Amino acid sequence: MGVSTTAAARKRSLPTPGVGLALVIVALAAAFWAAGASGGARQATVKVWFLQGEQMVTVDRPGSSAEDAIRQLLAGPTRAEARRGIETYVPSRTPLRSVSVQNGIATVDLGVKLVKGTDAASLLARLSQVVHTATGPEGATKVRLRVDGGTPLGVFPGVSAAGAITVEYLETPDAPPAKPPTVPSTPVVGSVRAAQQRLADLGFLLPSGVDGQDGPATQTGVLAFQKWTGLARDGELGPQTLRRLQMATKPAPITRGGSGKRAEVLLDRQVALAIQNNEVVRVIHVSTGASATPTPPGDFKVYAKYAKWWSVPFREWLLWALPFNGGIAFHEFPEVPAYPASHGCVRQSFTTAKWLFEFAEVGMPVKVISRSR
Amino acid sequence: MKARALLAALLLLGLLAATASASPRQTVNPGQLTVGVALPSEGFQVGVVRGSEVLYAQGFEIDLARALALRLDLDRTVFLQSRFDRLFSAGQKPWDMAIAEITITPDRRRTALFTRPYMSVDQGVLAAQTLERVPKTLAALRTLRICALRKSTGALVAQGTIAPTRPVVLAGNVDTLMLDLQNGHCEAAVYDAPALGTLKDRAPRRYGPFIGVIKTGEKYGVALPRGSTLRSRVDRALAGLIADGTVERLQRKWVTAHLENLRVLR
Question: Cβ of B206 and A150 within 8 Å?
Fold first, then answer.
């Protein structure tokens, strides 16, 4: 075993700016544990890495060794943390075989439960959680993952875990940001243009989207309209949608707020409202957290604007990101289904994400609402 | 004389019958199917190994091997990790059969027995994400630094059909092959199209575009050591799994490559 150190002595260099932005440090439990230790000597703590939305967050837990840290990781977030959207992708009751640190390499041996399953994102997140959590205590700078004493081969898509892995490796982007898809021209149709104009007047489409072509921008606008009005969500300008469009009125905010810009995320309807001076400027088709990783309701504020945000656990770029609750953010994503499907974030299509990014300001209130009807 | 002839015929029949029905004693370990594999290959076989012991495995070929064991009335399937080329080389083997995207070739038939094919494949060419201009022909591929898996049909295609101007970078296993591609040690990888497509599907932004396929019409078969008495039974079991749709179902479940609209490189 190596020399044990306290968590306080653990230092992790901040990554390069583009990547550093990806890390959100949430010291949720510090106060809780500190309170427990009040009156006595300061309790040693280790940092345990969980996820919130698309990013990693830390909580402090009592302990000083790499084994303490991994044990706390396997214990998972507290209920209070879970209510705030802090989650773990490490399967519950994953057995701990052993943890040792030698020459700066932490060898973490976990039960086979860790690698079961085929969800690529979940497997990558588990790896990231283990590597981040085992790095630091006892001077570990690299982590060698073992499963029942064996070497995982091909288990983590795009990442080889056969050798020792560093936090820096996981935090370094290894893929370029996705380019916006090329939208092929489609025939200009008069009736489509009329419907687009109506969508734009009501705030479901930008005026620049009124071009008579039934492309992705129109489909996104139609989806937002269908979700807002409770119609079937197919993104098509079908007879029912067109009929409802004629009689629709401009959407209003669900809650009353102050003047200025704000946003409401309506979890039940899967839309976001961009609001200015209590008027809805735009209704946006979004996809929020899936049932296993729900987007927590509550009042938040946009605390940063990142045109490109590297998701460390899932190893992909999030474009036009507006984080408002730890790692939970509005951001562009290639797939934005009509139902809740994200890791807790608010996904948007490339047709709307940049617009909201430019609309939003740091400090802009965001209200996440469970029921809007 | 007649009686002796009859007795001899009966003995012969008995011997033949014993050979044809795979009693558990025909396997390396009685009651168990021992299967040689070469992890990892995305979609086909991934897992955890300790030395040659496979502690955990999943994928199309893993499920297929288990289904074969069931058809052979064997209760247990044990996987042994091996170097890929050893799976079909000459000599005694510690396994009953090997399954690892092994293309049936005349060369390999000289050193191993093969079952009927369970999958037909072509070679795929996947670009590194750093490749700026995606080639559209075999001729255009020649100027690229190509990598392939050592002793694979992909390596033969890379060296023979593409014949690049620079030596082909040969990787010892698929993990290294894909790392070479990710780290820019090569600009395009040649490997079995379904596995390459599944890798791309599982980590889409790690790699560049799927350049296309080179039609080779290869067929994967289960390899058995020469002299194995199990071949006909494994073959029959495989035929049953093909006929009842099991093979197709397992393939659909695990091999998630989308190869339908890929360019055929000429």
Answer: no
